[in-house]
From TrEMBL:
Membrane-spanning segments: 6-27
GO cellular component: mitochondrial inner membrane
Protein source organism: Salinomyces thailandicus
Pfam families, per database record: CBP4
Native organism taxonomy: Eukaryota, Fungi, Dikarya, Ascomycota, Pezizomycotina
Membrane topology: Single-pass membrane protein
GO biological process: mitochondrial respiratory chain complex III assembly
Function: Essential for the assembly of ubiquinol-cytochrome c reductase. It has a direct effect on the correct occurrence of the Rieske protein, core 4, core 5 and apocytochrome b.
Homology family: Belongs to the CBP4 family.
Alphabetical UniProt keywords: Chaperone, Membrane, Mitochondrion, Mitochondrion inner membrane, Transmembrane, Transmembrane helix
Localization: Mitochondrion inner membrane
Protein name (record): Cytochrome b mRNA-processing protein 4
Length: 116
C-alpha cells in the first residue's frame, strides 16, 4: 500500500520537476520571434538603437569590471562613483550657467555701448 503511494508521489514529482520547465521552454518565444511580431516602425527603431544599447551595455560591464578590481564591495564602489559623477555633473552645470550668464552680460554691455 505504501509502495504505491511512494511511486505515485515520485512520478508526479518527476512530471512537475521535468515537465514544468520543459513546458515553459516550449511556450516561451525566442527574441527573433518577438522581434518579428513588432510592427515595422518598432522594428526600425529597435534596429536603429541596437548599436547604442550595445555600447551602453559594454560601458556598464566595463564599469563593473573596474568596480570589482577595488577591495570594496561592488555596490559601495558604484555608489561612490555615482556620487563622484553627480558632483562632476553639478560642477559642470554650474560652470556652464556661469559662462552663459557672462555671455549674456557681455551682450547687454555691447547693446548698451552700441546705443550710446
Amino acid at each position: 500500500m505504501k509502495t504505491i503511494t511512494w511511486v505515485k508521489m515520485l512520478a508526479s514529482g518527476g512530471i512537475m520537476c521535468i515537465g514544468g520547465p520543459a513546458l515553459i521552454y516550449y511556450v516561451t518565444p525566442t527574441e527573433e520571434e518577438l522581434f518579428l511580431r513588432y510592427n515595422p516602425e518598432l522594428q526600425r527603431r529597435s534596429l536603429e538603437r541596437r548599436q547604442e544599447k550595445q555600447e551602453d551595455f559594454e560601458q556598464f560591464v566595463g564599469r563593473l569590471k573596474e568596480y570589482s578590481k577595488s577591495e570594496k564591495p561592488v555596490w559601495t564602489a558604484w555608489e561612490e562613483d555615482v556620487s563622484r559623477r553627480r558632483q562632476l555633473g553639478v560642477q559642470a552645470e554650474l560652470d556652464r550657467r556661469r559662462i552663459e550668464a557672462q555671455e549674456a552680460e557681455a551682450r547687454k554691455q555691447e547693446m548698451r555701448n552700441s546705443l550710446r
